[in-house]
Amino acid sequence: MVLELREEILEKRYFLKDEVGRPVEDWEGMCRRVSRALALEKSEEERFFDVLSNCLFLPNTPALANAGSGRSDMSFSACFVLPVGDSMAEIFEAVKQAALIQKSGGGTGFSFSRLRPSGDVVGSTKGIASGPCSFIHVFDAATETIKQGSLRRGANMGILRVDHPDIMEFIGLKREEGWLSNFNLSVGITDQFMEALREGREFDLVFGGKVRRTLRAREIWDRIVDSAWRNGEPGLVFLDVVNRFNPTPHLGEIEATNPCGEQPLLPYEACVLGSVNLSEMVRDGNIDTVLLSETVRTGVRMLDNIIDVQGYPLSEIERRHKGNRKIGLGVMGWADMLLRLGISYTSGRALELAGKVMSFITQVAIDESQRLSWVKGVFPNWEGSLWYSRGLKVRNATLTTIAPTGSISIIAGCSSGIEPVFDWVTLQKRPVGEYRVVHPVYEKWQESHPSESLPSWFVTAREVPVSGIFECRQPFRSMFTMLYRRL
Questions:
Q1: Residue range 290-336, pLDDT digits in tens
Q2: CA 386 – CA 374 distance, rounded (Å)
Q3: What is the pLDDT of residue 121?
Q4: φ and ψ at residue 7, rounded to 5 degrees
């Protein structure tokens, strides 16, 4: 059952323990510990405790597990990007830095595009370079060893630009089952590649300013599609598009994302995430916009405080995180909200509501960040940012992010992220054990309507048409674009 899985996860991964590994706190105690650690004043502590204990809003796993634990060196953020340079010293420095991040429960993203292709001559030794794909295995092995102190499974994102000479090898890296189990992989797509693909042209693979190889753009694309069809990877990151919306372009280009791809970050940048439980925003068959607004405002303040009170694994990360103050407030329980409102996940009403809900959340988050800026100041790198160019003073360079919420949605007892319900009854195999899980909204309906068929709005993932998958996600994912077009 959901409750049993929730308790097992909390006891194994979140509750503080004594010297022999026995939990020394319960749910209320954990919420009190976290709210006390994250609050900068007493009134905030009570606000934080209220949203946490009632599962209205939960920050990412590192905050719940590490805040108030007495470990001053532990980070409370989940998302990091590290640079990987083209030398043995730089590569293994990145491996070490990733280990320091992952022991606190953070996930790391890397671009391997600076590494010279396999077969190149190494200038210092005149040896032959093994290429970026070989070194990805080194990072994966390090993560496998660390296991993030059993707090959470190791997670990385590996990105290679589509114009890198080793791109074809990279695309096929995970064709064998079990390889790179601690990595998600994505191809860094450029506008130039998409133009060549549309026009049926050849495409140059370049390194060090020199063309190393030329392939038909369609050949690269077909390899990506075939690999994604076989095992779901690689994904795509549209680098030029991301950088058109880079909120701090004066600080450099974004080249990578966090492990699940929802948060593009600069090298040495971090972001702390948290999610509003939309399922709990439904009262008497309607969305309680007052409660939603208050919860978003409290979430923004909690995430902003984390930037100041958490520990940092690297001084470079501390400077950049405090310089841009990026937070990622998102949602979970979207499918459950729709169920409680009697709206099918696949319907036009759901799409319309998604746009309205995310627009509301985004605007409230911006307003709260502006309020914080009046008292505490704008983020230090504000001058030169997109916010600066539009005359908007805010505390945070980014505000919203839609994360998967794998563990915290179980804790909150709601559907994960913005995904449809996978099935009403599932057998879930997790590091803490194997559980038969009955969806709580479905279970409640069955109890109150024992002899009735499910209403038409009770749909699972298998009933979502393929043509509707992108449409269902688009209102959430387009809010970033819509926001900057309006500003």
A1: 999 999 999 999 999 999 999 999 999 999 999 999 999 999 999 99
A2: 18
A3: 76
A4: -65, -40
Task: Please give the structure tokens belonging to residue 329.
Answer: 């407030």
Parts of the chain with a pLDDT under 50: 148, 150, 478-487
CB 407: neighbour CB atoms within 10 A? 22
Q: List 79's β-bridge partners, or say none.
A: 107, 271
Q: How far is it, in rounded angstroms, from Cα 314 to Cα 324?
A: 16
Domain 84-257 top-level CATH class: alpha beta
Distance CA 48, CA 295 (A): 9
Catalytic residue ranges: 258, 260, 262
| Both structure tokens of 444 | 């409640």
C-beta atoms surrounding 403 within 10 Å: 26
| The two structure tokens encoding residue 484 | 């900057």
Confidence (pLDDT) at 116:
95
Q: Which residues are CB-contacts of 290 (< 8 A; sequence separation ≥ 6)? A: none
Tell me what pLDDT residue 435 has. 84
Distance CA 157, CA 223 (A): 20
How far apart CA 137 and CA 211 sit, in angstroms, is: 26
pLDDT digits (tens, 9 = 90+) for 46-78: 999 999 999 999 999 999 999 999 888 899 999
Q: Where are the domains of the chain?
A: 2-74+272-411+467-486, 84-257
Could you tell me how far CA 12 lies from the centroid of its own chain?
22
Could you give the angle at which helices 42-53 and 27-38 cross, rounded to 10 degrees? Answer: 140
What one-letter code names the amino acid at 145? Answer: T
In this prediction, residue 473 carries a pLDDT of: 55
Architecture of the domain whose range is 2-74+272-411+467-486: Alpha-Beta Barrel (3.20)
Query: Is-same-fold flag (2-74+272-411+467-486; 84-257)?
Result: yes
218 close to 225: Cβ distance less than 8 angstroms: no
As a whole number of angstroms, the distance between CA 202 and CA 199 comes to: 9
Q: Is the dihedral of CA 127, 133, 134, 135 positive or negative?
A: positive
